[in-house]
Specification:
InterPro entries: AAA+_ATPase, ABC_transporter-like_ATP-bd, P-loop_NTPase
Strand order of the largest sheet: 6-7-8-3-9-10
Structural class: alpha/beta
Bound molecules: adenosine-5'-triphosphate
Shape: elongated
Organism: Streptomyces armeniacus
Keywords: ATP-binding, Nucleotide-binding, Transport
CATH topology of the largest domain: Rossmann fold
Biased composition (Low complexity): 340-352
Number of domains: 2
Pfam family, one: ABC_tran
Distance between the termini: 39 Å
Largest sheet: 6 strands, mixed
Number of strands: 14
Strand content: 15-25%
Order of helices and strands: EEEHEEHEHHHEHEEEHEHEEHEHH
Length: 359
């Protein structure tokens, strides 16, 4: 659906995309990155609305630098910003957008009714959009992206500003765009956890560079870990710390759940499973230390944990961007790149209610 080759976009003061090479296949793909990672810039280049500084990109086999018009005929776009005129109804607006896409009047009206019904706005379709809630406005923006029956839609932060229930509804709708209509989707988000159940494939960018591109299943399978909980003893008053030290010196990667502070989570260790012998190593270490083993169980990570480290989910002086943990589903923080972005993902995950619960 989309292929970029060394795609670079330099603004006078910032490199928004830095030699990005990625292939996106049919299905639902999440494009994830902290605010300022370059997601919107990439979408504008893919639509042929901005010219890249270097590199090339093709959408549905069409060259973005020469065939922008043909791309926009076949691709729907839901922008991030509020772009709806307040004084017209959803029906008037979506019919207008359908006409702009080249549909004849009757087809435009029929498609508008179908699309608004699909996004759950049928009852309110004749009301002026100025009185709509954020969730309703997001649905209109989605409807206008779908109305001309595109092969692919590019959705820029469609869950922005929505409460948790609204976000879930929007993510379900997005999934159905593909399952019900066979339209491929590229959806951006700065919240990693959102995309886990919605997307077949996830592309992560940071500072305009590709951090990772793989199927959602690969993300979570790669990250399989053992959750281990032990008792303290008189000889080992902090059994968890003792076990952590023993496993680390045995060469294992040991972390504590991201949602530290959750009840009981401080006593759980997550041990990366790198090979078949890890459970035996853990068992032996527990026995050697004379600890009681409360539980040892295999679990999969959430996608977001792949990018979280043990750093606290608050800003540090080196990122220069204030508290990354302040990211939420509705607020936008300033751009952050590199390790700071990873902390932001971790912070975002905590906001999303990612529990780190291993039970
Ligand atoms: N027209 C522009 N002129 C100068 N700099 C820009 C312009 N557009 C974007 N940038 C910068 O390029 C970087 C990437 O911005 P972009 O909007 O693509 O990020 P994003 O991942 O979509 O984040 P957000 O979700 O916050 O929009 C940012 O540092 C941004 O400030």
């Amino acid at each position: 659906m989309i292929a970029t080759q060394s795609l670079t976009m330099r603004y006078p003061r910032v490199t928004a995309l830095d030699r990005l090479t990625v292939d996106i296949t049919p299905g639902v793909t999440g494009l994830v990155g902290a605010n300022g990672a370059g997601k919107s810039t990439l979408i504008k280049i893919l639509l042929g609305l901005s010219a890249a500084t270097e590199g090339s990109a093709r959408v549905l086999g069409l060259d973005v630098s020469r065939e922008g018009g043909a791309i926009r005929e076949r691709v729907g776009y839901m922008p991030e910003h509020d772009c709806l005129p307040p004084d017209v109804s959803a029906t008037e607006f979506v019919v207008h957008m359908a006409r702009m896409s080249g549909l004849p009047p009757t087809a435009a009206r029929e498609r508008t009714a179908d699309t608004l019904r699909h996004v759950g706005l049928y009852e309110e379709r004749y009301r002026s959009m100025g009185g709509y809630s954020t969730g309703m406005k997001q649905r209109v923006k989605l409807a206008q992206a779908l109305v001309h029956d595109p092969q692919l839609v590019l959705l820029d932060e469609p869950t922005n500003g929505l409460d948790p229930v609204g976000r879930d509804d929007m993510l379900d709708l997005i999934r159905r765009v593909h399952t019900d209509f066979g339209i491929s989707v590229l959806v951006t988000s700065h919240l990693l956890g959102e995309l886990e159940r919605t997307c077949d494939h996830v592309v992560v960018i940071d500072g305009g560079q590709l951090l990772r591109s793989s199927s959602t299943a690969d993300f979570t399978q790669d990250a399989a870990s053992l959750a281990v909980e032990v008792t303290d003893t008189d000889a080992q008053p902090d059994g968890t710390a003792a076990l952590r030290a023993a496993l680390t010196s045995a060469g294992l990667t040991v972390r504590t759940p991201a949602a530290e502070g959750a009840p009981g989570s401080g006593h759980v260790l997550l041990v990366d499973v790198e090979g078949d012998t890890v459970p035996d190593t853990v068992r032996d270490a527990v026995v050697d230390l004379g600890l009681g083993l409360i539980r040892m169980e295999q679990r999969r990570h959430h996608i977001s944990e792949v990018f979280s480290d043990d750093a606290p989910a608050t800003g540090s002086p080196d990122d220069g961007h204030g508290p990354a943990g302040g990211t939420s589903g509705t607020d936008k923080t300033t751009a952050s790149h590199g390790p700071a972005a990873q902390r932001q993902f971790a912070g975002a995950r905590a906001q999303e209610g990612g529990s780190g619960d291993v039970a």
